[in-house]
Recover the amino acids of this structure.
């Protein structure tokens, strides 16, 4: 099992308390050394809570939610359906992997990106 794709909201790429040079270095690291595929969501998409969709051979999808140190696993299709539907919707609106890498590159080369 592996995590193959991360969908990131652009709000996750900035924090006012982190110096710009640190943010740029983190963006370069994200763009150049991430072992998984990263896709940015459009800025106008509403942020959603983090969850992971685990696809296991011969088993329906499992949703893993980590909420402030409490781990929740949803296994029944009735409870995982909203998450799989959300993931399908977000996947269709997210930038391609190549466009995401270009957007991350653009963020690292601008003097101000906040």
């Amino acid at each position: 099992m592996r995590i193959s794709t991360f969908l990131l909201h652009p709000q996750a790429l900035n924090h006012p308390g982190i110096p710009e040079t640190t943010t740029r270095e983190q963006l370069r690291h994200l763009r150049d050394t991430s072992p998984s595929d990263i896709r940015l969501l459009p800025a106008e998409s509403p942020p959603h809570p983090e969850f992971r969709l685990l696809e296991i051979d011969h088993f329906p999808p499992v949703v893993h939610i980590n909420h402030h140190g409490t781990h929740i696993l949803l296994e029944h299709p009735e409870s995982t359906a909203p998450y799989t539907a959300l993931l399908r919707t977000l996947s269709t609106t997210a930038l391609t992997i190549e466009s995401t890498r270009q957007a991350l590159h653009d963020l690292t080369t601008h003097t101000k990106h906040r």
About this structure: The first strand starts at residue 5 and ends at 8. The radius of gyration is 16 Å. The mean pLDDT is 86. The first helix runs from residue 20 to 33.
